[in-house]
Amino acid sequence: ERSPAQRDEATVGNRRCPKRGSGKIYFLKREKIKPSFFFSLFILFLLFGLVRGFLNNSVFAVKDFINYAYIFLALPLSTFLKDRQNQRNAYVIFKALIPAIFLLTLFVLILFSTGLVEVHDQFYWWWRGIVIGKATFAGYHFYRIVSSAHLLVLPLLLLCLSLWFASGKDEQWKRKSLALAIIVGTGTLLINFSRAYFLGFFAGLLFLAIGLEKKRWLKAVAVFLLIFIAEFVMLFTLTSGFKTMGFDLLGKRMGTLVSPEEELSSATRLMILPGLLEKIKEKPFWGYGLGMEISYPDPVTKEMKKTRHLDWGWLEILAELGIFGFLSFLSLIISLFVKMKEKLKTAPYFTDKRITIGLGAGLTSLLISSITGPFIFHALGIFYLSLVIAYLSPESQEVNKI
Q1: Taking the CB of residue 234, how many other CB atoms lie within 10 A of it?
Q2: DSSP class of residue 32?
Q3: What angle do CA 226, 376, 62 make, to 5 degrees?
Q4: Are 132 and 148 in contact (CB under 8 A)?
Q5: 334 has pLDDT over 60
Q6: 135 and 145 in contact (C-beta within 8 Å)?
Q7: CB-CB contact of 380 with 328 (8 Å)
Q8: What is the pLDDT of residues 45-101, one digit of tens each?
Q9: Distance CA 186, CA 153 (A)
Q10: What is the reported pLDDT for 250?
Q11: 145 bridge partner residues
C-alpha cells in the first residue's frame, strides 16, 4: 500500500497529466483568475496613460508601458504560487540570487579599483549599455558600482532579515544560509552606495518590528548594524589601501542631501524639478501620458537638454498619469497592506507571517526610495510589486511553511 505522500504525489501527477485527452476539459474547468478592483483600476489608468502618450506624440510611450507591463505577471504568478513546491523553489532562487549579484558587483569593483579598467573605456560602456549599470569614482580608489539588479537586492535582503530575525536556535542551518545572504546583500548595497537605497532600507528595518517583541527586534537590529558597520569599514579600508575607513566619504555623500549642488547627479535632479512641477500644474488630473519628456538646464554647461529619466518617482507618475492615475496606484498599494494585515491574522505558520512582513518591508523600502528615484516604477520594481500582489492574491492563499 502506498504512503500518503506517494498518494499525494500521484494525485498531483494525475492533475498535471490528465489521461485520455481530457486536457482540454481540465483547462476549461480551471478557475479563472480574478484581478482585484484596485488592480483593474490601475491597469485602466495605465492604458489611458499609454493612449495620452501617443496623443502627445511621445515615441517613448510604448517603452514606458513595457516597464509597467511587468505587473501583468501577477496573474500567472498567483497560480504558480498555489503550489507548495513552487513557493519553496522561488524562495531558494531568490535567496541564491543575492550572492550571484554580489559576486558580479564585487568583480566589477575590483576591476575599477585596481585600474584594470577605467571610466569611459570599452568595458565601462559595455557595463552602461548592456548591463544598464554605472561606475562612478567616489575617492580613495572606491567606485560606486550600480546595476539595475541591485533594485531586487534591497527588498530581498529585507525578506531574508525578516526570517533571520525570527529564526530559532534549533534552525542553525537556516540561520547560516540566511546569514550568508544577508552579509553579501549588505555588501552589494554598500558597493552601490545609494542614499535612496539606504533611506528605503532603514525604513524597511522599522517595518520588520511588526510581529516581534521589542526586545527581540532591537537585539536583532543591533547585531545587523554591527555587521553593516564591519562590512562598511572593511570595504573602504581595503579599496583605499588602508587610507580611510570610509566615514569621511559617507559624510560627504550624505552632505549632498543638504547641498545637492555639490554633486552632479543631485544638481541635475534639482534642475529637473521646476519643469516637472510645471508639467503637473498644466495637466493635473489626467497627466501628459507615458513617455513624457522634460527640458532642463544642464548644471555644468547651462545648455537646455531634454530627458525622460526624471528621477522623481512619485512626481513622475503624477505628471504622466495625473492625480486620478496616481490615486489608483496609491489605492492598489494601500489595498496590499490591508491584505497583509488580514493574512497576518489568518496565517497558521509563523514563518508564513514573517514572509508576509518581509515582503511588506521590501515594498516599503521601494516606496520610500522612490521619493528621489523611479525604483518602484522600474521594470524590476514592478516585477517585485507583481510578486507581492500574487502572494497576497486569493489564488495563492494556500499557506506553506518553507
Answers
A1: 14
A2: P
A3: 150
A4: yes
A5: yes
A6: yes
A7: no
A8: 999 999 999 888 778 899 999 999 999 999 999 989 888 889 889 988 998 999 999
A9: 9
A10: 87
A11: 135
Tell me which residue has cell 523600502.
365
Lowest mean pLDDT among 74-88, 142-156, 196-210: 74-88
Q: Calculate the CA 301 to chain-centre distance.
A: 34
Beta bridge partners of 136: 144
Q: What are phi and psi of 144, to 5 degrees?
A: -75, 115
Q: Which of 116-125, 141-150, 238-247, 264-273 has the lowest mean pLDDT?
A: 264-273
Tell me the pLDDT tens digit for each residue of 274-288.
999 999 999 999 999
Which residue pairs from 78-81 have beta carbons closer than 8 angstroms and sit at least 24 positions apart in sequence?
78/33, 78/389, 78/390, 78/393, 78/395, 78/396, 79/33, 79/395, 79/396, 80/390, 80/396, 81/390, 81/391, 81/395, 81/396
3-state secondary structure of 306: strand
Give whole-number Cα distances, 120 to 123, 136, 191, 267, 268, in Å: 8, 10, 19, 22, 20
> What is the pLDDT at residue 284?
93
> Where along the chain do its domains lie?
33-80+263-397, 83-255
* Number of alpha helices (DSSP H) and beta strands (DSSP E) in the chain: 16, 4
Between 38-42, 88-92, 152-156, 355-359, the lowest mean confidence (pLDDT) is in 88-92
Here the cell at position 165 is 530575525
Q: What CA–CA distance (Å, rounded) separates 50 from 221?
A: 43
Over residues 129-138, the mean pLDDT reads 90
Please say whether the beta carbons of 103 and 130 come within 8 A. Answer: no
d(C-alpha 382, C-alpha 50), whole Å: 17
Q: Which runs of consecutive H residues, i.e. helices, occur in 288-378?
A: 313-346, 350-369
Residue-wise pLDDT for 223-245, tens only, equals 999 999 999 999 999 999 999 99
Quick one: 301 exposed, middle or buried, by C-beta within 10 A (0-12, 13-18, 19+)?
A: exposed
Kindly state the cell numbers that stand for 193.
552606495
Overall size of the chain counted in residues: 402
DSSP string, 71-117: GGGHHHHHHHTTSHHHHHHHHHHHHHHHHHHHHHHHHHHHHHHTTSS
Task: Reduce the DSSP state of residue 136 to 3 states and report it.
Answer: strand
